[in-house]
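We were asked to recover a plausible sequence for a given structure. The inputs and outputs are reproduced exactly as logged, with field labels preserved.

PROBLEM: sequence recovery
POSITIONS: 120
GIVEN STRUCTURE:
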């Protein structure tokens, strides 16, 4: 089974920055797109940013210009650099990966989530 482990969450003041990372581990797997999602209590999980294996990115309008998604294919790791954080960015952030093998194509895997709190 493929596992995704996020790290880098924490408490930051408004206007501050935080960097998240998520590493995929396992054997005999490949990854297409990777992404970051977030969820606040009582709200639906929403897309933050995605990145394809070729490096094409897509961002939610609410984070565009402030967040940057990147990946290291050799390390099976996706990153999210978050700048100019706002209180409304407070949420549990989850990474995802579109994982496939010769037997099981395009299955979404999710990390356990990491808490990001933006507060003074």
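RECOVERED SEQUENCE:
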């Amino acid at each position: 089974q493929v596992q995704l482990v996020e790290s880098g969450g924490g408490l930051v003041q408004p206007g501050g920055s935080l960097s998240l990372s998520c590493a995929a581990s396992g054997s005999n797997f490949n990854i297409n797109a990777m992404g970051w999602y977030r969820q606040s209590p009582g709200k639906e999980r929403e897309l933050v940013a995605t990145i394809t294996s070729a490096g094409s990115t897509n961002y939610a309008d609410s984070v565009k210009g402030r967040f940057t998604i990147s990946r290291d294919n050799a390390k099976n790791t996706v990153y999210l650099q978050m700048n100019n954080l706002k209180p409304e960015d407070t949420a549990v952030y989850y990474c995802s990966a579109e994982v496939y093998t010769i037997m099981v194509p395009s299955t979404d895997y999710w990390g356990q989530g990491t808490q990001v709190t933006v507060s003074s």
